[in-house]
Amino acid sequence: MSVRIQYFAGLREALGMGGEEVELPAGVATVGALRDWLAGQGRDALATAKNLRCAVNQQMAGFGVAVKSGDEVAFFPPVTGG
Amino acid sequence: MRVSVQEADFDVGAETEALAAGRPEVGAVASFVGYVRADKLAGESAADQAVSAMTLEHYPGMTEKSLEAIVAEAESRWSLLGVRVIHRFGRLVPGDRIVFVGVAGSHRGEAFAACEFIMDYLKTRAPFWKKEDTPEGGRWVDAREADDAAAEKWGQA
Questions:
Q1: What ipTM was estimated for this complex?
Q2: A79 and B119: CB-CB below 8 Å?
Q3: Phi, psi (5° rounding) for residue B93?
Q4: Is this structure's pTM higher than 0.95?
Q5: pLDDT band, very low/low/confident/very high, at B52 (cuts 50, 70, 90)
Q6: Contacts with A8 from chain B: Cβ below 8 Å
Q7: Which residues of B are less than 8 Å from A5 in CB distance?
């Protein structure tokens, strides 16, 4: 099983894609580690984004939250609805 | 239905009345409507240099869940008799309605408070993003620290 990654708003535009499926590399166990690994794969905007936020399985999450195969992980800028 | 995320406009009068219709225990309905504002662009002097439209993006699935969670949190804090939240997405122009929050209660106190609480939490927790059309092209709206402060005044959920 892989991890479904989604990108939104300015981050989606900067990366040029709305999401991707990745096989979780060994040793990547948290959202923060996943972000760092993706940034190292050429997703530079994940490293340079200010105030990057994330959600795991459609719940707001901190970067220390665990991630495992089958999860849906989203990265996005601070929200601006309402 | 308590939460709707939709492209279509909504009828404020009908939504507000529906919160009290046929429910004699309701003594107060408080509502909030948010509109697209024609903001002047920072640093621009010409009066016509304003936001001409905006596009609201959201995270389908998570949006509905987060709004339901915010409503549930409000219901755990106040004794409420009904809640309705509608948030639009897609392309909107100044004067268009964006969001409706209506709260029914026995008395005005809980209705006013819960309505403000839901808006404050929605602003910082529901996954929507605004992109403004400007004469120089599209521009993503920055989150405001004032919105974080407004949500924090209610304490931790």
A1: 0.95
A2: no
A3: -120, 160
A4: no
A5: confident
A6: 57, 59, 127, 129
A7: none
Q: What is the pLDDT of residues A38-50, one digit of tens each?
A: 999 999 999 999 8
Domain total in chain B:
1
Tell me if B29 is assigned to some domain.
yes
The C-alpha of B99 sits at a distance from chain A's nearest C-alpha, in angstroms, of 6
Residue B155 lies inside a defined structural domain of this protein:
no
Cβ neighbours for A60, distance < 8 A, ≥ 6 positions apart: A53, A54, B66, B125
Instruction: Tell which CATH classification among 3.40.50.40, 3.10.105.10, 3.40.1650.10, 3.10.20.30 matches the domain A2-76.
Output: 3.10.20.30
Instruction: Quote the domain boundaries for residue B46.
Output: 3-138
Using CB atoms within 10 A of its CB, is residue A34 exposed (0-12), middle (13-18) or buried (19+)? buried
Please report, for chain A, the start and end positions of each structural domain, with discontinuous segments joined by +: 2-76
Express each pLDDT in B13-23 by its tens digit. 999 999 999 99
Segment 22-61 of chain B within 8 Å of chain A by CB: 34, 56-59, 61
d(CA B59, CA B48): 33
